[in-house]
Amino acid sequence: MLDLATLQKFLDPVFPGLMGVKLVEVAPERVLATMEVRPDLCTSGGILHGGAYMAFADTLGAVGTVLNLAPGKKTTTTDSSTKFIAGARVGTVVTGESLALHRGRTTMVWQTTIKNADGKLCAVITQTQLVLDGAG
């Protein structure tokens, strides 16, 4: 199984790294991470942009799926549903926890909750990851 440091090194040079996603805990059934709410990730009102919530959650579900892939397999997101509940202000840190709802042979389903620095629920994202052959 891939460890946290290896996964973080994979994320750092690509979009999740650009966003500032920091993995805290990784396991086949749960992924925990943080992300600083920077001005460049916010709306004009200084609140974390909805797309940033979605990209953060998509990253965590993908990491969870990668932890469960058989050798020679890869993954892609097929669908994602987001419910926005509260905001996160610039200069704070959000925490995302992604839990496996289904870890199958051809699909995996993850539900991510994102909370603001006060522990208030900001968003709930459910996504499906398709498991693909690694060739090609």
TrEMBL record:
<feature type="domain" description="Thioesterase">
    <location>
        <begin position="45"/>
        <end position="123"/>
    </location>
</feature>
<dbReference type="InterPro" id="IPR029069">
    <property type="entry name" value="HotDog_dom_sf"/>
</dbReference>
<dbReference type="InterPro" id="IPR006683">
    <property type="entry name" value="Thioestr_dom"/>
</dbReference>
<dbReference type="InterPro" id="IPR003736">
    <property type="entry name" value="PAAI_dom"/>
</dbReference>
<dbReference type="Pfam" id="PF03061">
    <property type="entry name" value="4HBT"/>
</dbReference>
<keyword id="KW-0378">Hydrolase</keyword>
<protein>
    <submittedName>
        <fullName>PaaI family thioesterase</fullName>
        <ecNumber>3.1.2.-</ecNumber>
    </submittedName>
</protein>
<dbReference type="GO" id="GO:0016787">
    <property type="term" value="F:hydrolase activity"/>
</dbReference>
